[in-house]
Design goal:
alpha+beta, six-stranded antiparallel barrel
């Protein structure tokens, strides 16, 4: 399954600060339909995320009725992504 969407990069200031993009509500509902089949625990969903020419593997974080896509430093640095930037990303979930 592939999903593509655009949103702003935000920072979550938890125990370790991290940059994320929020999955839109409609796409979150699609993910929830397959979540039980693909989660590896705690609701985490393994995905491949592509921004520009860079692809990496990560896991979606379930939060506030949607999912957050973490943007690792490697991806942000490769694509020149900063806090507040609006990015288009593609998620690939192996179902």
């Amino acid at each position: 399954m592939e999903l593509e969407f655009t949103d702003a990069v935000f920072e979550w200031r938890g125990p370790a600060p991290y940059h994320f993009v929020r999955v839109p509500e409609d796409d979150a509902l699609v993910i929830q339909d397959v979540a039980a089949a693909v989660t590896y625990g705690w609701g985490m969903i393994p995905v491949a995320v592509t921004v520009g020419g860079t692809t990496m593997t990560t896991a979606l974080w379930p939060k506030d009725g949607t999912y957050y896509v973490p943007l690792k430093d490697r991806l942000r640095n490769a694509e020149g992504i900063c806090l507040g930037d609006v990015v288009t990303l593609t998620l690939r979930i192996e179902v």
